[in-house]
Specification:
YacF-like; alpha+beta; 9 helices; 2 domains; five-stranded mixed sheet; disordered N terminus
Length: 273
C-alpha cells in the first residue's frame, strides 16, 4: 500500500494493529450508481428470503419489487453487458503481462464469458415472473402508501403471509431465480472494479480533502476507509474533473453534522478498471 507524502512523521502509522476501517463509497457515473443500489437490494433480499416469519417475507418481497422497479428505469441488462465486455477487453490485454497470474486471469475471463452468454440469450428476461404476478402487482402499488400493505388494505397479501413458511420461501426463491444473472453480473463487475484500486493513505487537513481526476483514467468509484474510532464520517462529492471529501462529526443525531476541525487520516481508493 502506498503512502501519500503529505503524511508527515508526526502522524501515527495508519491503521493501528487490530483497527478496522469502515468503507464509504461514491459512484462517479450512473451505471455504477445503479449497480451499487442493486447490490444493496440483493443483499437485503438475501438476508430475509429464507426467514420463517411473515416480516422476513415482507422484507424480501419489498426488496424484489424495488429491484424490479430499478430494472424498469434503466436497461440494466444492456448496461451490465457493456460493463462485462469492457472488463473482458481490459483483462485480455493483460495476457502478456508476466506479473499476472494466468490461471486466475483465465478464470476471470471464463466467468465474464459465461455472464455475457447468459445476458445475450433471448431467454434472459429478468423479473418477468415478478412483473406478471397479480399479488406482486397489488403489493407494488400499495408500497408507496404509509402502512399501505396492512391486512385490511391487502387481504390477499395477508392470506399469503399466513401460508406455511416453506411455501412462501419457495415462491420468493422462484421470483428471485430469473434475477440471478443480474445479481451475479453486478457482483462480478463491482468486485473487479473494487479490486482495481491501489490504496493510498492520505490526510484530510481540517477534515477537507480534494483530488483532481486524471483525465487519462476512468475513475468509476471512490472508496474511503476511515477508522470507526475517530468519530467522523465522510461526505463525498465528485464529477469529471475532481472529487471532494469532507469529514463530518455528529455526536448527537438531533443536531446537524459539522465538518471536523482535526486532520483525519484515511485510506483512499480510486477504482478505475
Amino acid at each position: 500500500m502506498k503512502t501519500d507524502p503529505s503524511i508527515g512523521p508526526q502522524h501515527r502509522l495508519f491503521p493501528e494493529p487490530g483497527e478496522e476501517l469502515v468503507f464509504y463509497e461514491q459512484p462517479l457515473n450512473e451505471r455504477i450508481r445503479a449497480f451499487l443500489r442493486l447490490e444493496y437490494l440483493f443483499d437485503l433480499v438475501a438476508h430475509s428470503i429464507d426467514g420463517v416469519t411473515d416480516w422476513h417475507s415482507r422484507a424480501a418481497l419489498g426488496g424484489l419489487i424495488e429491484i424490479t422497479d430499478l430494472l424498469s428505469r434503466f436497461d440494466l441488462r444492456a448496461e451490465l453487458l457493456k460493463e462485462t465486455e469492457r472488463h473482458a477487453q481490459v483483462l485480455t490485454g493483460l495476457r502478456q503481462n508476466p506479473s499476472v497470474d494466468p490461471t486466475r486471469l483465465q478464470q476471470s475471463l471464463a466467468r465474464l464469458d459465461q455472464l455475457q452468454t447468459q445476458l445475450r440469450s433471448s431467454s434472459c428476461q429478468p423479473a418477468q415472473a415478478l412483473r406478471k404476478d397479480e399479488l406482486v402487482y397489488a403489493v407494488r402499488h400499495r408500497l408507496p402508501i404509509p402502512g399501505g400493505t396492512c391486512s385490511f388494505d391487502l387481504p390477499a397479501y395477508h392470506f399469503w403471509l399466513r401460508r406455511p413458511a416453506e411455501l412462501r420461501i419457495a415462491q420468493l426463491n422462484n421470483w428471485l431465480r430469473d434475477l440471478i444473472v443480474i445479481r451475479d453480473g453486478v457482483a462480478e463487475a463491482l468486485t473487479m472494479i473494487r479490486n482495481s484500486a491501489h490504496p493510498l493513505l492520505v490526510v484530510a487537513r481540517a477534515g477537507f480533502y480534494q483530488k483532481p481526476v486524471d483525465a487519462n483514467l476512468i475513475c468509476q468509484l471512490v472508496r474511503v476507509g476511515v477508522s470507526g474510532t475517530l468519530g467522523v464520517f465522510p461526505e463525498i462529492s465528485g464529477g469529471k474533473h475532481r472529487f471532494t471529501i469532507r469529514f463530518l462529526s455528529q455526536p448527537d443525531t438531533a443536531t446537524r453534522p459539522t465538518q471536523s476541525s482535526k486532520d483525519v487520516e484515511f485510506e483512499l481508493q480510486c477504482c478505475n478498471l
